[in-house]
Amino acid sequence: MSAQIPAVRSTEQLREKWMKPEVISGSEILLRSLLLEGVECVFGYPGGAVLYIYDAMYGFDDFHHLLTRHEQGAIHAADGYARASGKVGVCIATSGPGATNTVTGIATAYMDSVPLVVITGNVATSLIGTDAFQEADITGITMPITKHSYLVRDAEDLPRIIHEAFHIANTGRKGPVLIDIPKDVSAQKVRFEPEHSIDLRGYHPTVVPNRLQLDKLVAAISEAERPVILAGGGVIYSGGHEGLLEFATRSGIPITTTLLGLGAFPSGHDLWMGMPGMHGTYTANQAIQQSDLLISIGARFDDRVTGRLDGFAPHAKIVHIDIDPAEIGKNVKTDIPIVGDVKTVLEMLNPMVGYSSKADAWRAQISRWKQEKPFKYKDSEDVLKPQWVIEMLNDTTHGEAIVTTDVGQHQMWTAQYYKFNQPRSFITSGGLGTMGFGFPAAIGAQMAHPDRLVISINGDGGMQMCAQELAICAINKIPVKIVVINNQVLGMVRQWQELIYDNRYSHIDLAGSPDFVKLAEAYGVKGLRATSKEEAERAWQEALDNDGPVLVEFVVHKGENVYPMVTQGSTIDQMLMGDCE
Fold first, then answer.
1. Active site residue 183
2. Annotated catalytic residue, options 16, 133, 542, 568
3. CATH number of the domain at 211-373, please?
4. Which of the residues 59, 393, 412, 480 could staple to 562 if both were Cys, CB 3.0 to 4.6 A apart?
């Protein structure tokens, strides 16, 4: 086997082969329905309650399933696939512990608006509510972290439910949908009637914005002297990156992109100011704080972006463009609300927008800030600095790789020092901050793009939460390049304990971690280690020249901090600059 996804047949070919009305099991209906939704790969782990479903996969050559080594690995891989491809990711888990092992991944996707369909098995309908073996109320458990959920009572409903689930997951504000299938329903035989239509009363996301609100925005732009665009992940999810580039260049408004918005706007563009917020650029944070017009596009004013809310953008008129009306005004008072799909809003807005001529002095000021206060760190010839490692990865790949990260210091250094120019090239857990996410997400991204370079950047802490998935890279020849930034400590926790908790270091020592090179080799993956710049360049080039999966451990300076940093309770212009001074 390899990472290559089998050639996907055209919809017409699938219809001809699998849409024939006939009496089949609920499990067969599920698999056929997934294929008819265009599903290329499902990530999963079998168990008793889903054995009929896995039995239906036997000999089903059109259906591609990747067996992970943990259900959390499966759902993170499905998440990475969805973020990289723009399609709905799908995973399968059994009842009870199998289902509950997906909960962190569901919450991760929910916080970051990622379209997933999560299929779980359950005990037979006659046993539901009896505390049967491996029973869990997964629909109840996940109610706060799903867009919608289904408990299937009759196999006849499966075609409709699956069709609805994909529609709900991938429209409006995207997110995870759960389908819980009792074991007797997966075995039930009924006549398969494929579903074509959607009729969901009460679910009609607003796509086209109110034209009067666009007129207000255009007027505000013409009057503004210090305008700023704040672009988030919603730009990427809507496919609005080209419209965003046109909007910024037409108007001449400087732009900052959030962590999940990285790649939505070319990092080399003169108008780009970098990332804002807790570990953002001096320029982006100062620009937001001094702006008189802040145009938020597909961003939700997360606390890591805003800092102290009562001191956020104190002089600015706030414009908020978002598909989810519940986000508008939730955290920041909004002067011009615009509800609609970002891509559609920008397509309508761009012909209306002219160059912001009053902002010439503002653009000059921002250029000075960018020159005076770039990201900086103290390099060393004696120890390997993590920032240098990320810069090397960027330089050798020209910023063209798909990069996934785990969570922690390495995540922020990647956001700061890797220059993303394409959407869907940076995959990270933003809202939930899920350790263990990065490596399985890279597997999913590689399955979505078999021919692209995928780099998984991890800390030595997060890597140990998902290391078992090395097995599937080796077995299936999935050529992810796995980077471990090893500082032998929970780095971000150590940084907070140093700066905020007066150097009271408590339970952060990871010095007893395994030898990552030997661990990789134990799974059948090539492992390399670097402790100096020369070794780092040589090992990384060897990894790039290898056509299979490779793990490279970079042993870096233990005491390095991520700067700039805005501490909790501060406004975003109150920055600890550290090495950036």
1. yes
2. 133
3. 3.40.50.1220
4. 412
